[in-house]
Specification:
The protein is an alpha+beta fold. The chain folds into three domains: about 80 residues, Alpha-Beta Plaits (2-Layer Sandwich), CATH 3.30.70.3340; about 140 residues, Sulfite Reductase Hemoprotein, domain 1; about 55 residues, Alpha-Beta Plaits (2-Layer Sandwich). The chain is built from ten helices and eleven strands. A five-stranded mixed β-sheet has the order 5-6-7-10-11. A four-stranded antiparallel β-sheet has the order 1-2-4-3. The protein has a two-stranded antiparallel sheet with strand order 8-9. Helix 4 links the parallel strand 5 and strand 6. Helix 6 crosses helix 8. The chain is globular. Bound molecules: iron/sulfur cluster (3 copies). The site of one iron/sulfur cluster has 12 residues, from helix 5. It is an enzyme of class 1 (oxidoreductase). InterPro entries: 4Fe4S_Fe-S-bd, NiRdtase/SiRdtase_haem-b_fer, Nit/Sulf_reduc_fer-like_dom_sf, NO2/SO3_Rdtase_4Fe4S_dom, NO2/SO3_Rdtase_4Fe4S_prot, NO2/SO3_Rdtase_4Fe4S_sf.
Length: about 325
């Protein structure tokens, strides 16, 4: 068996840079941030070259849309990072802080209700980059889903945003047809003709917008775009399904502010070592929700950031 020569302090230092020890060796996997799972052909080529030059030629994909190059010797880590920087690529994505954002392909997907690539890039800049030095009780994962099909499971992240299109129903146009094309178009059975008129069950409707334009009498011609936000999801040693805030946000700025407030709330009120779902459980969902809808956390942002908290966080990977 190989003799390991890297000290625990050095291992910890490079882990914070996104280099994870390859077990039983002195080599590391370098975790490259893709922002939202979208990289250029040039960047892809650069990663392949770096894998051949500094690693063992193997490239792996992680579940959170980062790319890892395996088998990098400790003394090649800096050269590897410099090589990647030629095409604007950086390593990272570890520790008790905001983690790389995960997004679906909502920008190009036929069901997409938001520009998932653009919004996730904005979230990446504002919270992954902007909060990179901010210590949290544990890791904090953000996901962006283009529609209620939930392909990237936003409700299993600490916070998840889902694109919405709330249908606008013009009751006066509805003739209560025997065979209602809106009812047929609704994938979750939320739209039904009852007593000669269409009814949309607001509890059951997930605002997928699939019924818009389906009525031949123009009863549903428009929708209101928006964002649904889930908080407190997690998937791992323990599982929690996130709960949706009782509001569909129609302003992107407001939705992104909720993410910032959630990070500040977690930093201020989370206990070191606990995930956001536990913080919410402890505080109570209604309490957490009212703080996320109010402005106090943002007004106290600097005070919360300046506090000496979570000097050693709970994340182990
Ligand atoms: S969540 Fe919706 S928009 Fe995103 S990939 Fe799935 S179906 Fe497409
Ligand atoms: S919503 Fe349109 S298709 Fe459905 S019952 Fe009313 S008029 Fe007919
Ligand atoms: S928005 Fe989607 S879930 Fe809601 S009524 Fe229309 S088709 Fe059904």
């Amino acid at each position: 068996m190989a003799t390991l020569t890297i000290s625990p302090e050095e291992e910890k230092r490079v882990k914070a840079l996104g280099f994870l020890s390859n077990k039983g060796t002195d080599n590391f996997s370098g975790r490259i941030i893709t922002i939202n799972g979208k990289i250029s052909a040039q960047q892809m080529q650069c990663i392949s070259e770096a894998a051949n030059l500094y690693g063992n030629g193997v490239v792996t994909l992680t579940t959170r849309l980062t790319i890892e190059v395996q088998g990098i010797p400790f003394d090649k880590i800096e050269d590897f990072r410099t090589y990647l920087s030629k095409f604007g690529l950086v390593t990272g994505g570890t520790g008790s802080k905001v983690r790389p954002v995960v997004a679906c392909k909502g920008t190009t997907c036929q069901y997409g209700l938001l520009d998932a690539f653009a919004i996730s890039e904005e979230i990446h800049e504002r919270f992954y980059v902007g909060y990179n030095t901010v210590k949290l009780p544990h890791k904090f994962k953000i996901a962006v889903g283009g529609c209620p099909n939930n392909c990237v499971k936003p409700d299993l992240n600490d916070i998840g945003i889902i694109g919405q299109m709330t249908p606008v129903f013009e009751e006066d146009c509805c003739n209560g047809c025997k065979k209602c094309s809106v009812e047929t178009a609704c994938p979750v059975g939320a739209a039904k003709v009852v007593d000669g008129i269409l009814e949309i069950d607001e509890e059951a409707c997930n605002n997928c917008g699939r019924c818009i334009g389906k009525c031949r009498f123009d009863a549903i011609e428009e929708g209101v775009p928006g964002f649904k936000i889930y908080i407190g999801g997690r998937w791992g040693k323990r599982i929690a399904i996130g709960k949706a805030l009782n509001k569909v946000f129609t302003s992107k700025e407001e939705a992104l502010d909720v993410i910032e407030k959630a990070i500040l709330l977690f930093r201020e009120q989370g206990k070191t070592g606990e995930r956001f779902s536990t913080t919410i459980e402890r505080l109570g969902f209604e309490n957490a929700e009212s703080q996320l809808l109010a402005n106090d956390l943002l007004e106290r942002k600097q005070e919360i950031l300046d506090a000496k908290l979570h000097l050693v966080g709970g994340a182990t990977c």
